[in-house]
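Folding Task

Wanted — backbone structure
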Amino acid sequence: MSRSRRDIVWIPTFALLVAFAVPWPLWGVDRVVAGLPVWIWWHVAWLGLCTVLFSRFARSGAWERGMGLRTDTGDDRRESPVAGGDRP
């Protein structure tokens, strides 16, 4: 299976997200901001970044191509049957 270059870019992107999920630069820092330790704010910001990047990953179609659900690269969505009848 051949992968496009834009799909391969997601591999190191997610590797970096996993590597920096632990706040290594803040190890041993006791600073407090707005009543919470700085490492808590690191996680809040990191989860926001993960949310944005995963949203872009899913919208790019890389998930479908990686799972073999769709082979084309266009924006045409795969038709799925609707339980209980036709769409209104």
User: Anything to note?
Assistant: Residues 38-59 form the longest helix (22 residues). Helices lie at 5-8, 10-19, 38-59, 62-67.
